[in-house]
Amino acid sequence: VPGGGGGLTGTVAVVTGAGAGLGRAEALALAGEGARVVVNDIGPAADETAEVVRAAGGEAVAHRGDIGDFTVAGELIGLAVESFGDLHTLVNNAGIIRDRMVFGMSEQEWDDVLRVHLKGHFAMTRHATAWWRQRAKDTGAPVRASIVNTASEASLLGSPGQPNYAAAKGGITALTVSTAAACGRFGVRANAICPRARTAMTVGVFGDDWDGEGLDPLSVDHVAPFVAFLAGPAADRVSGQVFVLHGGKVALLAAPRIEKRFDAAGERWSVAELGERVGGWFAGRESTATFAATDVLSLG
Ligand SMILES: NC(=O)c1ccc[n+]([C@@H]2O[C@H](COP(=O)([O-])OP(=O)(O)OC[C@H]3O[C@@H](n4cnc5c(N)ncnc54)[C@H](O)[C@@H]3O)[C@@H](O)[C@H]2O)c1
Questions:
Q1: Which of the following is catalytic: 146, 152, 155, 239?
Q2: Other beta carbons less than 10 A from residue 5's beta carbon
Q3: Among 177, 8, 185, 180, which Cα is nearest to 89's?
Q4: 183 C-alpha to center of ligand 1: Å?
Q5: Is the Cβ atom of 49 under 6 angstroms away from ligand 1?
Q6: Which numbered atom of ligand 1 lies nearest the CA of 153?
Q7: Which of 2, 75, 154, 184 sits between 20 and 30 A of 55, alpha carbons compared?
Q8: Which atom of ligand 1 is nearest to the CA of 92?
Q9: Ligand 1 proximity of 232 Cβ (cutoff 6 Å)
Q10: Which of these is catalytic: 146, 155, 165, 239?
């Protein structure tokens, strides 16, 4: 268990999909800072991660279940409260991919990805925030809670082979901003990360091994400390934000800006005037200049 800073001592965290990859590293980083963790995964690997935490002297319970199931998500939040008496950090990380171009994608491939990512994030957020809201009412003071959602650059770039995944991740970004706006008044922060890491999910893109020197720039261990930071008091003023994480780099994304404003000459637009003014604006413009945030790629 890395870390050892102890900044999360006395806190309780839930991490979904923490049997492997990023979630496993994030659970270990939270435990390394002193958090008691509930380690969820759909597979048996949740037990192994919890065992690693306990072997290092930390406290962890494992939970096996599908976070895309609304009831199971509620049980997972309930398990944290039953096991450790409280909840402070929710890391929504579990995910799957079913890549295919939009014209060939099956309904099942669409539904599965939207369910695990977007509905999974919603279901966990719904149950956690309801608990925190009640807690704030009962105690008369805001809770100090943090939600870390896992978005992706796929949504920023409009990844062509991942229409389902890009849409789900874009939805997660919107859910994050909405949650931060709705729950800040009772002490809940919500932020989203767009990580880049070599895991089972990305083996096809990044390969399965690093043959360079030193720490792999795509190691999950670059991402995990940032999640522990977002969970803790040093991030008290950080909410409603989206970060891209790559190697030792953290990029804070700006909100979209208005690029160009068009005003109708009269009371309302005619189609012809729109063609001239808005259509004309695109005449000399690069066709690659779309809403896709290609600038973000310059980070790596
Ligand atoms: N690796 C990257 O470069 C990268 C980039 C952007 C976003 N992400 C996101 O990071 C998150 C973690 O991905 P990873 O790369 O570690 O992948 P991974 O495949 O190594 O880990 C995902 C984990 O989630 C679990 N899981 C899947 N469906 C589940 C469900 N319904 N309920 C509970 N657990 C479930 C899996 O069993 C697995 O252990 C995902 O949300 C992914 O979309 C990863």
A1: 152
A2: 15
A3: 8
A4: 26
A5: no
A6: 6
A7: 75
A8: 41
A9: no
A10: 165
Q: Is 165 among the catalytic positions? A: yes
Would you state the pLDDT for residue 295?
Answer: 87
pLDDT at position 294 is 87
pLDDT under 70: residue ranges of the chain:
1-4
Q: Identify the CA nearest to 238 among candidates 195, 298, 193, 197.
A: 193
Ligand 1 centroid from CA 94, angstroms: 4
What single-letter DSSP state applies at residue 220? G
pLDDT digits (tens, 9 = 90+) for 19-32: 999 999 999 999 99
Amino acid at 229: F
Please identify which residue in the block is written with the tokens 């005037």: 273
Q: Please report the pLDDT score of residue 299 as a whole number.
A: 84
164 within ligand 1 shell (Cβ under 6 A): no
Query: Model-level pTM?
Result: 0.97
CA distance 107 to 88: 36
Q: Give the per-residue pLDDT at 284.
A: 87
According to the model, what pLDDT value does residue 3 have? 52
- Structural contact between residues 138 and 129, judged by C-beta atoms closer than 8 angstroms: no
At residue 4, the pLDDT reads 62
Which residue stretches of the chain are H helix?
A: 21-32, 45-55, 70-84, 107-113, 120-139, 153-157, 163-183, 203-206, 224-231, 271-274, 280-281
Cβ-contact 36, 112 below 8 angstroms: no
Residue 256 CA, ligand 1 centroid: distance in Å: 27
HSE-CB for 11 with a 13 A CA cutoff: 24
